[in-house]
Amino acid sequence: MGGRGPDMWRRSGCCSGPRDEVVQVDLFSDGRIVGLVALNQIFEQLFAMGRAPDASVQDELVKMVAAKNYVPSKAEAEYAAGLLREYAKFCAKKQKQTRRV
């Protein structure tokens, strides 16, 4: 008997709508993995808007992530720092891919 767990959540959509991808990241840089819905879509959107991975985008990142995910108020600063770090990695990867094309 499989149960209802994270694997099931990654495969199912809510309310027959489009399925958002769940991305697992180490936001706290200590090995604790957090699953976030639509993180790649959020990063893609910000990148397409030309938003640089700097402090000016941190609040927007947290708000966009919190629209689809639970962000504990006590951990907002850690989420902001971790999301910015992950967005910087994403941007570096996208820019590297763009240079190769």
Task: Summarize this structure as a short list of keywords or feature phrases.
101 residues, two-stranded antiparallel sheet, 2 strands, 50% helix, 8% strand
Strand-helix topology:
Elements: H1 6-11, E1 22-25, E2 34-37, H2 39-48, H3 58-66, H4 76-100
Antiparallel strand pairs: 1-2
How many structural domains does the protein architecture include?
Answer: 1
Calculate the mean pLDDT score and round it: 85
The number of helical segments is 4
Note poorly predicted spans.
1-17
Compute the separation of the termini in Å.
Answer: 47 Å
* Beta-strand share of residues: 5-15%
Taken from the alpha-carbon principal axes, the silhouette is: globular
Q: Order of strands across the biggest sheet?
A: 1-2
Helix proportion = 40-55%
Q: How is the main sheet built?
A: 2 strands, antiparallel
Order of secondary-structure elements: HEEHHH
Q: How would you summarize this macromolecular structure in one to three sentences?
A:
With 101 residues, this protein is mainly alpha-helical.
Structural write-up:
With 101 residues, the chain is mainly α. The chain has one domain (6-100). It is 50% helix and 8% strand. The chain is built from four helices and two strands, in the order αββααα. A two-stranded antiparallel sheet has the order 1-2. β1 (22-25) and β2 (34-37) form a beta hairpin. α3 (58-66) crosses α4. It is globular and about 40 Å long. 16% of the residues are buried. Residues 1-17 have low confidence and may be disordered.
